[in-house]
Amino acid sequence: MLRNIIFDCGGVICEFDVERILLRYFAPEDVGTARDILFRDWATIDAGDMVYEDYVAWKVPLMPERLQAQTGRFFDGWYKTQPPIEDVWALAARLKARGYGVYLLSNAPTVYHDCIADVFPVIKMFDGMVISAPIKMTKPNRDIFEYTLQKFGLKAEECLFVDDVQANVDGAKACGLDGYRFDGDADALARYIENA
After folding, report:
1. Which pLDDT score is estimated for 119?
2. Pairwise CA distance, residues 86 & 74, whole Å
């Protein structure tokens, strides 16, 4: 019986479009350069292999000098400006009101962990949250799913994991959770949960 819904953040709770994020800080002609330099090693901060401040100190000087000031602004603010996917927020609130456990599991740097509930107030009603960097585990690896289940005392067969990346959904399924790849249609997700 389905009792718990575990949501990813970027692409599920909020939009995560690298190009759109960069366009808030860089001119269109500079987005390619910024993407190539700033996101090339992003997995190292999601995995907690490098602290966010060290990553910033490494990447800013790699940018053309004329772009370094806005690169600093990017690192200070990108995670505060992602548009919410409001239909998912509403769905999470309905599920919580109906007695489901509602959790968050996301690959993200530590800076995200420290502010996410303020940036996305819906998180404050969640029953628990796991962010990858502080625990040095990432999706789709088995250890982060097992950690999440153990941390909150959940049974895999009672959980649905919702992510926009198929590899992460497959990782959850390999650990015994049900998995759903979210494509932006919150109504379809709601119907899937209703029929689970």
Report:
1. 87
2. 24
| 3-class state of residue 178 by DSSP | strand
118: which 2 tokens? 């303020």
Using left for φ > 0, alpha for ψ between -120 and 50, and beta otherwise, residue 136 falls in: left
Residue with tokens 């939009």: 15
**Are the CB atoms for 5 and 100 separated by under 8 Å?**
yes
pTM of the entire structure? 0.95
Lookup: tokens for 90: 């509403």
| Assigned token pair, 116 | 């996410």
Which phi-psi region, left, alpha or beta, contains residue 165 (left: φ > 0; alpha: ψ -120 to 50)? beta
Spatial separation of the C-alpha atoms in residues 65 and 193, rounded to whole Å: 50
N residues, the chain: 196
The gap between the terminal CA atoms of the chain, to the nearest Å, is: 8
Distance between CA 62 and CA 77 in Å, rounded? 19
